Amino acid sequence: MTQGLATRTIHAGETTDVHGSPSMPVYNTTTFRFASTAALLDVVEGRKPGSLYTRYGLNPTIQSLEAQLASIEEAESAWVFCSGMAAETSVFFAYGRKGIVCIGDAYGGTLELLDAQLPQLGIETHLILGRELDRLEPLLESGPRLVFLETPSNPALEIIDIAAVADIAHRHGALLVVDNTFASPVNQRPLELGADLVVHSATKYLGGHSDITAGC
Ligand SMILES: Cc1ncc(COP(=O)(O)O)c(C=O)c1O
């Protein structure tokens, strides 16, 4: 992670290519060269911003992509992952340890994670149907602090009212995370409707050409 490291904010659309490429090049490198140990330490110890190590996200390509994604979702910030499932798993581990309620239909891999794998790791999960919103309040009173939903869902295109669920979740101190893969930010921005977090399988419409696997 990047805590303690100085990170220069790269804005949406900004390129830092020294050769003047009009779009952000892919910096296909794991790490970056420093002129001296002192220059490396300035970045590692947070005195100066800089590119450092790609897994930390301190790579200009990643930072530019995150800025673009945050901009189109109108989010404070975004993190990219190597798949949609990696993004979802990270959200569930970070915010779902007190329990997760999933509302309605969702992508099969997500349902398997919620129904089979997370409970094996001791994370309590509850799956309710989209028409069973009346079950949400009693469930949240029993402890879960994360609500997840996917709208429109893959593959049944089930629609859930994001604002209504956000209202119930917030009244119980829970966060709402929405999988916005199918609508894409072009058609729906869950944060504007009250959601706290958005996840994407960027493998789908954000990528758009079936040539990358990614998540955010
Ligand atoms: C709605 C939705 N969420 C998440 C995923 C998982 O994404 P990935 O395949 O990028 O791990 C998919 C994959 O089909 C999906 O359709």
Q: Which regions are unreliable across 5 or more consecutive residues at pLDDT < 50?
A: none
- Specify the CATH homologous superfamily of the largest domain: Type I PLP-dependent aspartate aminotransferase-like (Major domain)
The share of residues in extended strands comes to: 5-15%
Principal-axes geometry comes out as elongated
- Distinct small molecules: pyridoxal-5'-phosphate
List keywords for this structure.
10% strand, 2 domains, alpha/beta, five-stranded parallel β-sheet, binds pyridoxal-5'-phosphate, Aspartate Aminotransferase, domain 2, elongated
In short, what is this structure?
With 216 residues, this protein is α/β, with parallel strands linked by helices.
Q: What do you see in this structure?
A:
The protein has 216 residues and is an alpha/beta fold. It folds into 2 domains: 1-77, no CATH class; 84-199, Aspartate Aminotransferase, domain 2 (3-Layer(aba) Sandwich), CATH 3.40.640.10. The chain is built from 7 helices and 5 strands; from the N terminus they run αααβαβαβαβαβ. The chain has helices at 37-44, 60-73, 84-95, 108-120, 136-141, 162-171, 184-187, and strands at residues 100-103, 125-128, 146-150, 175-179, 197-199. Strands 2-1-3-4-5 form a 5-stranded parallel beta sheet. Helix 6 links the parallel strand 3 (146-150) and strand 4. The longest helix has 14 residues, at 60-73. The radius of gyration is 19 Å and the shape is elongated. The two termini are 15 Å apart. The mean pLDDT is 94. The structure holds pyridoxal-5'-phosphate. Residues 83-85, 107, 109-110, 150, 154, 179, 181-182, 201, 203-204, 213, 215 line the site of pyridoxal-5'-phosphate. The site of pyridoxal-5'-phosphate has 16 residues, from helix 3 and helix 4.
